[in-house]
Specification:
heterodimer, B: about 75% helix, flat
């Protein structure tokens, strides 16, 4: 089995060693790094926009392009985080904590080298888990029934909502359930009844995912960027940007730990790279012998953040491939792109096209190789691109948002969908509602809808299997405890109930002991 | 934020009530002998109920934090519109919606795109303090950028991706 899987992996890697594939890898990785480096352009927005440029490509090359953009964007954001203290993407927010102080100490080059080595190693650790866990999870997912899939959808929404809005989880859950509500629009999948369409033929298929994403991440981002004052100009680093082997050897424990944390966070539905970086950073700080350096220019802290966020990328692809449930917002767009290109990620992937799983592993491998090469070679060109004023970049980004939304089905209606989701996304973001659960909700709505109803029909309305099957039990317990422990009145109620029970039991025990 | 939460909470309550009522009104498909638990309205009603629960929590929480005192004044609105960032936001929204919602499909795509990019750059890079020469140069630069971007996007989508442009 292992030999067979290794053979598949090498065959997938060899399959991409063609001039055409290498050309696509080269431009898409570079574009990803540029997208990530430009403040305001996120990985999700980049993948959503580039998806519209891949319609005519064969499926494997299209996904290769998107994965290169994804890996590149998460890495590219570290440049701005280090040089101007502004995270290029939300995933690089933790990078600013130590990256910018290092740049202020005249060590911008070293910081960029650390970011490169951290990102490369994080991606590689995640890639190893993608190659090993995805086939196992894919085979295990075949045992899932409607009950498990229903809870998996709810679990994804609740956990994603909780972790992406730690200060106010209720907003994360609202965003997730709003996403589920959006997915209810259109013809439903069991009786073909048209829900919330009001006779509009354009809404029969529901809101198209790519225009909605382009709006929520593209147009909303354009509005946010134009509202904010122009960022500072970046200065070229004066020291070497080559990654140092000594840094890797010195902090190998941090690298492995952050890689594991990043991958694990990636696997949790809809959580994403930013949380991966923060959790890795916090863990590194807790375990570090140089804790006092954190926040003041710690190499270890920077290494942890950059390893953590890039390890999330392959981690987030694992549930997307095997369960059709994305691990992050960019992975959600990637999943949508896979469906557009006729691929069928989900529990059947290891039965129908096991080779594709290894092709994805190979894609991550090549994307990682590309960021290593660009990370070392292209620092000055990137600085010139960073100098492009937003007043010239944003209109072009919006032109791509509009034509990209239109080009999928040649409908001007989709341009309006993009505008609508853009405005809604901007307002929600201003009110601190995270976008990842919203996107996850839109993706998981259909899965939840079909499986809840199927499950209820199978059991003739009996809810017991939804709560007693082993996986369901674990999922609903985590889901409910996450909600109950986060809502103050419910938590207080539970606490008083617990204390009440305890005080009743204690006198009883006392009597018994006497 | 408490005031925003108060308003959002009410919007959520109204939206969820609407969703629940609409779900209730959806057909039960008895004539097709459909299982009563697989009817189309059951899941939207479930989602509506959860959103109603969260909406109520949001309203109660915001009232406790004093969010129900909205304190809407004309002066407050004026201050919002006077803020430079908000002005830039409104101008961006106006230009983007005008281009994507109304200009596309009304005039040829390349012209609409070129015009949008040019107007966007000119309006955001205008500087009253600078002389005519500098201003003229900016207009020309914006025109060159508009021509290049409009031409490139039109060519790529029309010729390479064979998209019938609006």
């Amino acid at each position: 089995m292992l030999i067979e899987n290794l053979a598949r992996l090498f065959s997938a890697i060899w399959g991409f060693v063609t001039p055409f594939a290498l050309f696509h890898m080269a431009w898409s990785s570079l574009l990803g790094i540029i997208i990530g480096a430009l403040p305001g352009l996120t990985a999700t927005m980049g993948i959503a926009l580039i998806t519209t440029l891949t319609y005519k490509l064969p499926a494997d090359l299209a996904i290769l392009v998107l994965i290169c953009v994804y890996v590149g964007a998460i890495y590219g954001g570290s440049r701005t985080a280090i040089l101007i203290n502004i995270p290029g993407t939300p995933a690089n927010a933790a990078t600013t904590l130590d990256g910018f102080p290092l740049a202020m100490q005249g060590l911008a080059g070293r910081a960029m080298g650390v970011a490169t080595s951290g990102s490369v190693l994080g991606s590689l650790i995640g890639m190893i888990f993608l190659a090993t866990i995805a086939p196992i999870l894919g085979t295990y997912a075949l045992k899932f029934q409607s009950f498990e899939f229903f809870w998996l959808a709810i679990f994804g929404i609740v956990i994603s909502g909780h972790l992406t809005a730690l200060e106010d989880p209720i907003k994360g859950w609202i965003a997730g359930f709003l996403g589920l509500l959006v997915s209810m629009v259109g013809q439903e999948g069991i009786h073909a009844y048209e829900r919330f369409t009001y006779g509009t033929t354009e809404l029969l298929g529901g809101f198209a995912l790519i225009p909605a994403m382009v709006g929520a991440f593209g147009f909303a981002e354009v509005l946010s960027v134009m509202q904010s004052p122009p960022p500072k100009m970046a200065e070229a680093p004066r020291d070497s940007i080559f990654p140092k082997v000594a840094d890797v050897l010195c902090y190998w424990r941090t690298i492995v730990r952050s890689g594991l944390i990043g991958t694990a966070i990636g696997i949790i539905p809809g959580v994403g790279e930013d949380i991966g970086a923060w959790v890795s950073y916090a863990a590194a700080r807790r375990k570090s012998k140089e804790r006092e350096k954190f926040g003041k220019g710690s190499i270890e802290g920077l290494m942890a953040a950059e390893t953590g966020n890039n390890a999330v990328v392959p981690g987030a692809i694992i549930p997307a491939l095997t369960l059709a449930i994305p691990g992050s917002a960019p992975a959600a767009v990637l999943l949508a792109a896979m469906f557009i290109h006729g691929l069928r990620p989900g529990p059947m992937i290891m039965v129908e096209s096991p080779q594709f799983v290894y092709q994805v592993v190979a894609m991550v491998f090549f994307a990682t190789l590309a960021i290593l090469i660009y990370g070392v070679a292209l620092s000055k060109i990137l600085l010139k691109i960073l100098a492009i004023p937003k007043t010239r970049l944003m209109p072009i980004v919006f032109v791509l948002c509009a034509i990209g939304s239109y080009a999928i089905t040649n409908r001007t209606f989709d341009i309006w969908v993009m505008i609508g989701f853009g405005i809604a996304g901007y307002i929600l973001r201003q009110m601190k509602y995270p976008m990842a659960p919203l996107v996850l909700g839109i993706i998981l709505g259909d899965l939840m809808d079909k499986n809840l109803r199927r499950g209820l029909v199978l059991t003739d309305g009996d809810l017991t299997p939804f709560f007693t099957r082993p996986i369901c039990l674990v999922l609903w317990l985590i889901t409910f405890s996450s909600i109950v422990l986060s809502i103050d009145p419910l938590r207080h109620g539970l606490e008083s109930l617990y204390h009440g029970l305890r005080s009743r039991i204690r006198p009883g025990r006392l009597k018994a002991s006497r | 934020m408490a005031r925003a939460d108060f308003v959002t909470g009410w919007v959520l309550i109204l939206l969820s009530l609407y969703v629940i009522v609409e779900s209730w009104r959806m057909p039960r498909l008895e004539h097709l002998k459909v299982h009563p638990l697989s009817v189309p309205g059951i899941v939207p009603a479930f989602i509506g109920s959860v959103l109603l629960f969260f909406g109520i929590i949001l309203v109660i929480r915001s009232i406790r934090r004093g969010g129900h005192r909205l304190g809407l004044t004309r002066e407050g609105f004026r201050r919002i519109f006077d803020e430079p960032g908000n002005r830039r936001l409104l101008l961006t929204a106006f230009l983007c919606i005008g281009y994507a919602g109304f200009l596309i499909g009304t005039i040829p795509y390349w012209l609409a795109t070129g015009l949008f990019v040019w107007v966007f750059i000119v309006l955001f890079e205008r500087d009253r303090g600078t002389g005519f020469r500098v201003q003229k140069w900016r207009l020309v630069t914006a025109a060159i950028l508009a021509l290049i971007s409009s031409g490139a996007v039109t060519l790529v989508f029309e010729r390479l991706f064979l998209v019938t442009l609006p």
